[in-house]
Every structure is written in structure tokens, then in C-alpha cells.
Amino acid sequence: MSTDSLPATWHGALHRLQTAGTPHVLATLITCQGSTPREPGARMVITNDDCFDTLGGGTFEWQTMQAARGLLNTRTSGFHLETFSLGGRSGQCCGGYVNVLLEVFLGSNIQLAIFGAGNVGCEIVSLCAPLPWQLHWYDSRPDAFPAESHHQPRLACHVLDDPLTGIAALPPHTHALVLTHDHAEDYALTAALLTRDDIASIGLIGSESKWASFSGRLKRNGYSEERIGRVRSPIGCVQNAKLRDKTPYAIALTVVTELLWLADASFVQETRGLDLPTARKLLTNLPMTTS
Question: Which superkingdom heads the taxonomic lineage of this protein's source (predicted)?
């Protein structure tokens, strides 16, 4: 039998989602008492629009999925305990008690949008591959992306039909790089990015004269000095030094170095695990019933 035809197990889904940097929740049945659908240790993986494996089905499982998705939507990381009386809160007739531990993985902490699949864009994507970032790669030319890019984890390639539509779809707090093959497209993208207050940073490739032209045009189109000041151009100027090496790889190195510092400033460490006092209190207060 082909593995493609097998049902997705929780451990297979967990590996795939963590590799891809997709937000998800691992739900584990940690205690059971009385009549319950599954045994302790049963697990399922839940995303915003899918689930893998089962804790036993029924209303109790549906409520577990709702709780998990609520935590994903509020970006609440760490461990969370849900308690169900199978006959009370869950509306089931088993009559037992279950406690479910929800472990929330928020996916890639850093989102990066790269507009342009030219030489510098390709080098940036290659350098970012080992980093735990989610990459969104755009180009208006459908055949611009290298064939292998469609199989790279944490990388999504998009054909850019319209700058406004593409930028509207970006997740909040995304770092954006504009380096397309066309100056008019660069300007349209930069102007559209400046309409979003929740973009983490905006970098534009080009010379000082290109930026002088763009910034003057933005002023004439009604953008304030403060808003225009959000754009870094030229990108990759570490400590305001000018790089004499203009090869795509060298430029990409400086750009990714700059991004590492920007990303580090906005990095939020996910909570993993419980400290001993909290764990002791949690386990002491688990609801139990007499046999």
C-alpha cells in the first residue's frame, strides 16, 4: 500500500507541520476516570482548518478542537489544561472524566515577504532556508521561481497579479523586501506596504538616487515624512557602510544579516514546559471522582 493512501496519524502530522512552520496544537489525553472514549496517551493534532487522529470523537473532541483553535487565534503559546466531564460540559453519556493537555506551537515566529525572484532574491531565499522563518516569495512572472523552491519547507511561492492584493494577504508583523525586476513595480509595492501600519519592516533594493526619486514621489502622493521613514533603502547597509562587492550573493549576505538584527528585536520566545510549582499545583488540582 502507498503511504500516500494511509490516514494521517498525529505523529506524521506533527512532523510535517513543525517542519513547515505551520501553527498547530498537540492535544494529549493525560488522565481518564470512569467510562471514556479513549485511553490516556491518546493524541491528536489540530490546526486552524484541519485535525489529525482522534481523542474519541463526540462533543468532547469538538470542544477540544474549539479550545485549541481559540489558543491559536489569540497566539497563546505553551501548555494548557482542559477538563471534561463526559455527561456535563460535553453533553456525552459516558459519565467519566478526562483531562486534555493542549501544547500550542505558534509556528514560525518570523514572517518574511520577498518581492522579486531575480538573482538577489534567489540568494536571499537560499540563505534563509536553514532559519526557522516563514517565507512568502512573490514575483509577477509565473516562470521566475526555481523549480526546487516549490519543495522547500517554510516557503510559499506566489504569482503577484496585483501589489495591493498581495500585500493585503500578508500576515501581520511581516518583514518585507522589495527587489523586483521593474522599478515601477518596486514603487507600487513600496507605496502599498506603507499603507499597512502592522508591517514589521520595509526594505527596498537600489541606489541612493533611486530612493531619492521614490521618496520624492511618495511625498508628492501624500505620504508623510514619518511614514516614508519606515523604508530602508538601500538595504543591507550594515552600520551605514557601503559595500563595494555588488555580486548577488554578497548583497544577499548583508540583507540577511540586517534582517537577523531586525528579527531578533521582535522575537517572542514561546513558552515551553511548566515550572515545578505550577506543575505541582496543576496535578494536585486535577478533578477526580470516586470509583
Answer: Bacteria
Distance CA(147)–CA(151), nearest Å, equals: 8
How many CB atoms are closer than 10 A to CB 84? Answer: 26
Q: Kindly list the structural domains of the chain, giving each domain's residue range(s) and its CATH number in brackets, ordered by start.
A: 3-108+269-284 (no CATH), 110-265 (3.40.50.720)
Judge whether 91 and 59 are in contact, CB under 8 Å.
yes
Using DSSP's 3-state secondary structure scheme, residue 235 falls into: coil
pLDDT digits (tens, 9 = 90+) for 200-234: 999 999 999 999 999 999 999 999 999 999 999 99
The answer to whether the CB of 10 falls within 8 A of the CB of 45 is yes
Q: What is the pLDDT of residues 256-270, one digit of tens each?
A: 999 999 987 765 555
Q: What are phi and psi of 42, to 5 degrees?
A: -65, 140
Q: Which three cell numbers stand for residue 287?
A: 478533578
